[in-house]
Design goal:
It is a single chain. The protein is of the alpha/beta class. It has two domains: about 160 residues, Quinone Oxidoreductase, Chain A, domain 1 (Alpha-Beta Complex); about 150 residues, 3-Layer(aba) Sandwich (Rossmann fold), CATH 3.40.50.720. Helix content is about 30%, strand content about 25%. The protein is built from ten helices and 16 strands. Strands 3, 5, 6, 7, 8, 15 and 16 form a seven-stranded mixed β-sheet that branches. A six-stranded parallel β-sheet has the order 11-10-9-12-13-14, sandwiched between helices. Helix 3 packs across helix 4. The longest helix is centred in the C-terminal third of the chain and has 17 residues. The model has no long low-confidence stretch (mean pLDDT about 95). Bound molecules: NADPH dihydro-nicotinamide-adenine-dinucleotide phosphate (NDP). GO terms for molecular function: mRNA 3'-UTR AU-rich region binding; NADPH binding; quinone reductase (NADPH) activity; zinc ion binding.
Length: about 325
């Protein structure tokens, strides 16, 4: 079957870290050999994630160069390697987590591939592996959310943020959502947030006071904070006693030099989780994927697509997500 594939394809690579100008849209070889347990996927949509900007910009280090960016997508299986699970079929529709996703074809270990039910569109599927499954692992494992709890979500109109708002609503939590513009806050509300707030970047105490006011002086049971450096302190301040600080992203820069003693006043829990450390095998992936597809079908969860960009327009897409002007999901179309 590999014989029927083209020899070259388009991909987005970097040869060094830096600004958007390091992004190279170029011809590369289509992966020609599949190892035990691998499949070749023809992308229909590729998901853009904020983490792609960390690898391009140097916040995280690519293991080697040239490095093909991208960590997720959805499409069809173009070839099966030896020893792949029987639920993965040639031409079957799938979504996946994998490095090297910004390309026409990508070679992926079956451990990272989810077959798609007919009810899930390929667009929704491409928007799900990183952002939706992150949101789901956060509410199930980082802080197992209970109905009636107040939860704070930062960057609530972003990719992960809108999934969090919807999932929290579906499980009966009460969400306070922050986002930088009135339009984004309105979107968070439409996606299930009960209260929306601006960050008050010039006066974070004002933000803290507002959250305390909303929660009757008690504070929130957990914060899901993806902004990092800029919001870390105010997020700690709005937690209730024995609350949980879940710091899962660095959009404003990473949190460093944290003195553990700061947790003692309120006996707070602090986590810095990664979805790829919650989902490490097929046994961990498939139940989460099925739970997500069920939420989408039964609770009517949906994805707001910000824009579908042609793969060759990757620079513009990257500038857009870094500009804070986007909401929901950005997709690339090969
Ligand atoms: P988003 O769509 O949420 O885009 C990032 C958002 O962060 C912006 O829209 C913006 O929203 C907000 N933001 C706040 N401060 C800044 C800043 N200084 N510069 C840029 N943006 C800023 O991206 P994703 O949904 O892809 O990711 C959200 C976060 O979750 C990221 O930090 C990402 O790294 C993290 N993440 C972590 C995972 C994990 O496993 N730990 C997995 C997936 C994502 P606003 O303007 O409203 O503030």
């Amino acid at each position: 079957t590999m014989a029927s594939l083209p020899e070259t394809m388009k991909a987005v690579q970097i040869d060094q870290t830096g600004g958007v100008d390091v992004l190279q849209y170029r011809d590369v070889a289509v992966p020609s050999e599949l190892k035990e347990g691998e499949v070749l996927i023809k992308n229909e949509y590729i998901g853009i994630n904020y983490i792609d900007t960390y690898f391009r910009g140097g916040v995280y280090s690519p293991p080697s160069f040239p490095y093909t960016l991208g960590r997720e997508g959805a499409g069809t299986i173009a070839a099966l390697g030896p020893g792949t699970p029987s639920d993965l079929k040639l031409n079957g529709r799938v979504a996946y987590f994998s490095v090297g996703a910004y390309a026409d074809y990508v070679r992926v270990s079956a451990d990272k591939v989810m077959p798609l039910p007919d009810t899930i569109t390929t667009k929704v599927a491409a928007a799900s592996p990183l952002q939706a499954l992150t949101a789901l692992t956060l509410i199930r494992e980082a802080h197992p959310v209970k109905a009636g709890e107040w939860i704070l979500v930062t960057a609530a109109a972003g990719g992960v943020g809108l999934w969090l708002c919807q999932l929290l609503k579906a499980v009966g939590a009460r969400t306070i959502a922050t986002a930088s513009t009135a339009e984004k806050r309105e979107l968070a509300k439409q996606n299930g947030a009960e209260v929306v707030l601006e960050y008050h970047e010039d006066n974070r105490d004002r933000f803290v006071d507002k959250v305390l006011e909303v929660t009757g002086g008690k504070g929130v049971a957990a914060v899901f904070d993806s902004v990092g450096q800029a919001t870390f302190d105010s997020s700690l301040k709005v937690l209730t006693r024995k609350g949980t600080m879940v710091s899962f992203g660095n959009a404003s820069g990473p949190v460093t030099n944290f003195a553990l003693g700061r947790l003692a006043d309120k006996n707070l829990k602090l986590l810095r989780p990664s979805v790829s450390s919650y989902i490490t095998s097929r046994e961990e992936l498939l139940p989460y994927a099925n739970e997500l597809w069920n939420f989408i079908e039964k609770d009517g969860l949906s994805v707001k697509i910000h824009e579908v960009y042609p793969l060759k327009d990757v620079k513009r897409a990257t500038e857009d997500i870094e500009s804070r002007k986007t909401s929901g999901k950005l997709l690339l179309k090969p």
